[in-house]
Amino acid sequence: MCARTGSRSTSGPARRYTTSEVHDLVVDGPGGGLALRLYRLESSEAARPVVVFAHGGGFVFCDLDSHDEFCRSMAIATCDRGGPAVLGQALFYPVIDDDFDTESYRKYGVGYYNSAAAMRWYWEQYAPDGTDDPRLIPTRAESLAGLPSAVVATAELDPPCSSGDDYADRLAAAGVSVQHRRFDGLFHGFLTFPALSLSEPARQEVRKMVRALVDGPDLPVTGTSGFAS
């Protein structure tokens, strides 16, 4: 679910994925119509789980077409189980806060695809009046207890990586069930680069994590992946 901004993916040629139904929709939003794209494997009246993919894009970039290939690949990989209840949060290299002095910002703020300068600009566009509201910076809430179960996938070479890792740790400390993987040697956005050799193994691991989230994991799982370059 992305706003149309005119920016396109730089991930290379998209693979062809077949779904039974793909529909472009428009729903009402606070600032006007919001463009959505619905992917379904087959027609059915039965209730089924829904994955809402909301691309960040620095809060300003990319659209339905730039991430169409990734959404199709996720739809193909999704098993048809369960009901329509909201079960959890799946965060891929999330932007959690505007702390630019973390270890990952200091080490990877320049020269690793996403940059500290770009992230500062994104935050200025997204929250020009400040970021005190915990709805913008969730870790500024008094407690994270009671939040939905989470999948948190971070990328070692991404400036916001440390904040994402810390968010996963704080969720677990608050009693929230968390599956956390830091993908070493990879950068922000790697899941949407199908031509990258490490992307498909990472996608498979992320899909397993999301499936465990849907099925209800018994125990939290945290750690780093073995996809080091």
What does this 3D model show about the protein?
This protein has 229 residues and is α/β, with parallel strands linked by helices. The protein has 5 helices and 5 strands. It has a 3-stranded parallel β-sheet, sandwiched between helices. The protein has a two-stranded antiparallel ribbon with strand order 1-2. The longest helix is centred in the C-terminal third of the chain and has 17 residues.
Secondary structure elements and pairings:
Blueprint: E1 21-29, E2 32-40, H1 68-77, E3 88-92, H2 103-108, H3 116-126, E4 149-155, H4 161-173, E5 178-183, H5 199-215
Number of alpha- plus pi-helical segments: 5
Strand order of the largest sheet: 3-4-5
The pLDDT mean sits at 79
The ordered H/E elements are EEHEHHEHEH
pLDDT < 50 runs, ≥5 residues = 1-14, 79-85, 225-229
Overall number of strands: 5
Q: Kindly name the structural category.
A: alpha/beta
Envelope shape: globular
- Tell me the span between the first and last alpha carbons: 31 Å
Radius of gyration: 17 Å
Helix content: 10-25%
Largest sheet features: 3 strands, parallel
Strand content: 15-25%
Short description:
The chain is of the alpha/beta class and 229 residues long. It is 25% helix and 16% strand. Strand 4, helix 4 and strand 5 (178-183) form a beta-alpha-beta unit.
Notable characteristics:
229 residues, alpha/beta, two-stranded antiparallel sheet, 5 helices, disordered N terminus
